[in-house]
Amino acid sequence: MIDQDKIEVNRKGSGKWKKTIKESKEMESKIQQ
């Protein structure tokens, strides 16, 4: 049960993390232009 909870949290966390990386890359490209 505990492991399953950790996996759920990791999925949500990595989803947010990927979104943050994508947004930061878009911000950088806008600044460079």
Structure, described:
The chain has 33 residues and is an all-alpha fold. The chain has one helix and no strands. The model has no long low-confidence stretch (mean pLDDT 75). The longest helix is centred in the middle third of the chain and has 31 residues. The protein is rod-shaped. It comes from Cucumis melo (Muskmelon). This is TSA1-like protein.
Q: Let me know the largest β-sheet.
A: none
Secondary structure tally, helices: 1
Helix share bin: over 70%
> Could you give the distance between the termini?
49 Å
The assigned structural class equals mainly alpha
> What is the overall silhouette?
rod-shaped
Task: Let me know the average pLDDT.
Answer: 75
Along the chain, the helix and strand elements come as H
Total strand count, please? 0
Content of β-strand: under 5%
**Rg, alpha carbons:** 14 Å
List segments where confidence is low: pLDDT < 50 over at least 5 consecutive residues.
none
Give the topology, please.
Blueprint: H1 2-32
Brief digest:
The protein contains one helix and no strands. With about 35 residues, the protein is mainly alpha-helical. This is TSA1-like protein.
Task: Give structural attributes.
single chain; 33 residues; mainly alpha; 1 helix; 0% strand; rod-shaped
